[in-house]
Design brief:
two-stranded antiparallel ribbon; Spore Coat Polysaccharide Biosynthesis Protein SpsA, Chain A; globular; 9 helices
Length: 246
C-alpha cells in the first residue's frame, strides 16, 4: 500500500469536548471531514482512529472504517502510530478531525510530494494570508519558507517581521494548515523526538522536527480551512457555509 489517510478523532478535547460529533448542517463534523477525505484520489485506505465507543459508533454508522485506539495517547500522532504500526505502507497522511473544510487536493499534493522525492520525509500545507487580522492572530500559525519551499520556522507571531527601514511596503504572510504527510519510517522517528525548547515556547509540535534538523516541505494552496477549536469557531464556520463556502 502506498498511502493511508488516518483521521484521529478524540472525543475528550480539552477546549471543546465532543467537538468531532457536533452537528454541522445535519451531519457530525467528523463525517464532513471523512467525506472530503474519501474524495482523495491518492489514498489507498482511510481510517478513523477513535478513542471513545460513541465516536466509533457514529463513524461506523456513516460507513467509515474505524480502529479503536488507546485512551492514554497524548496526541493524534501517537494515535495514528498505533493504527499504522502493523501496516506495510509508504506514506501516512494525518487528517485533522476538526477541519471540516479540508480539501482532498491538499491530501493528494502532500502525499505526492513524498512519493515523488525520496529526500523528503514530511510535508504539510500553507496558504497566503489575505486578512491582516489573521497575521496578527496567535491562533493562526504562520510559516516562513526558504529554498524549495522548505519550512524555516513556524510561529504564532506575524513572521517575517517587516523592519521600519525595509524597502518593502508590506510583508507576505503564510498560514499553516495542519494536514501532515509523513513517510511511515519518519512518523516513528518524529513520535520519539524530544520536545524542544521552541515547541515548549510556541506550543507548536512541528517545531521539534525543525529543531532536530529535519526538513518539512510546504505545499501552497489557495483554499482556506477553519480549524474548529472552540464553539465560536463552529459558529464562524456555520456562517461561512450559509454563504456558500465549499
Amino acid at each position: 500500500m502506498d498511502v493511508i489517510g488516518v483521521i484521529p478523532a478524540r472525543y475528550s478535547s480539552s477546549r471543546f469536548r465532543g467537538k468531532v460529533l457536533v452537528d454541522i448542517m445535519g451531519k457530525p463534523m467528523l463525517q464532513h471531514v471523512w467525506e472530503r477525505a474519501k474524495a482523495s484520489r491518492i489514498l489507498d485506505e482511510l481510517v478513523i482512529a477513535c478513542d471513545d465507543e460513541m465516536v466509533q459508533k457514529v463513524a461506523s454508522g456513516f460507513g467509515a472504517k474505524t480502529v479503536m485506539t488507546s485512551r492514554e495517547h497524548a496526541c493524534g500522532t501517537d494515535r495514528i502510530s498505533e493504527v499504522v504500526n502493523p501496516l506495510d505502507v509508504k506514506v501516512v497522511v494525518n487528517i485533522q478531525g476538526d477541519e471540516p473544510l479540508i480539501d482532498p487536493m491538499m491530501i493528494d499534493s502532500a502525499a505526492r510530494a513524498l512519493l515523488g522525492d525520496s529526500s523528503l520525509s514530511m510535508a504539510t500545507i500553507m496558504r497566503k494570508i489575505d486578512d491582516p487580522a489573521e497575521a496578527a492572530d496567535p491562533n493562526v500559525v504562520k510559516v516562513v519558507v526558504g529554498k524549495n519551499d522548505l519550512a524555516l520556522y513556524f510561529s504564532r507571531a506575524p513572521i517575517p517581521y517587516l523592519a521600519p527601514n525595509s524597502d518593502l511596503k508590506e510583508a507576505t504572510y503564510y498560514k499553516h494548515i495542519g494536514l501532515y504527510a509523513y513517510t511511515k519510517d519518519f512518523l516513528f522517528t518524529y513520535k520519539n523526538l524530544p520536545v524542544s525548547y521552541l515547541e515548549r515556547t510556541e506550543k507548536l509540535e512541528q517545531l521539534r522536527v525543525l529543531s532536530e534538523g529535519f526538513k518539512i516541505k510546504m505545499i501552497e494552496t489557495k483554499i482556506d480551512t477553519i480549524s474548529i477549536d472552540t464553539p465560536e469557531d463552529l459558529e464562524r464556520l456555520k456562517v461561512l457555509l450559509q454563504k456558500g463556502a465549499s
